[in-house]
Amino acid sequence: PDAKPAHKRILLKLSGEALMGDDAFGINRATIVRMVEEIAEVTRLGVEVAVVIGGGNIFRGVAGGSVGMDRATADYMGMLATVMNALALADTMNKAGLTARVMSAIAIEQVVEPYVRPKALQYLEEGKVVIFAAGTGNPFFTTDTAAALRGAEIGAELVLKATKVDGVYTADPKKDPGATRYTKISFDEAIAKNLGILDATAFALCRDQKLPIKVFSIFKHGALKRVVMGEDEGTLVYV
Ligand code: UDP
Questions:
Q1: What's the CATH code, domain 9-238?
Q2: Most buried of 52, 114, 115, 185 (most Cβ within 10 A)?
Q3: DSSP character for 46?
């Protein structure tokens, strides 16, 4: 018989940068299409997928254009940037035959529906992809924290942190050819070794909720599928 997925419901955190491809900012069409194909493949396996999308490709509250700005104002701009990414992602998903729903943590109801937990759960049960936009809805937080928060709220079995590197390494693999990938690592060990896997708030939330994190590369073809099938891919951070 065909192998069954190891996870029923997952929370996928995509950074804004993941949408840029090789561009300097914004959204690269080919990149977003390819990413959606990877996601479509796991939904076809019957896995329920929720996505938290970042905004760093458009605006980051703590750097760049925001220098000299009021921090909270800049952070709200960052949250709005994630709404733009969410719309682009949902549009690409819908064109690829998926049914995507965007839910925003800040009220912007002419554009996207508000985040309502029971409704998000309903969509997931119906096999729709739910894209959580506007992070946590609060300044001074990040979309990593939104991923941990929403992941816990929807009862995801795993938070998937999509990165450019295919896991957590003992050293920077670009600088040290001897660096090896951790297949798995405990939260405690990751803290002791000061491995910045998610930001500290997000990491603490996952740890408290015993919500495991998988770090993997979204750019490696088939990696997302291998993760949901429970195969050796990326790095698992466990309690
Ligand atoms: N942001 C925020 N609160 C949140 C999530 C995001 O204020 O709950 C703002 C913050 O300014 C951040 C920006 O939105 O810099 C973009 O989010 P993030 O940096 O997490 O995006 P990513 O790095 O994943 O692209």
A1: 3.40.1160.10
A2: 52
A3: T
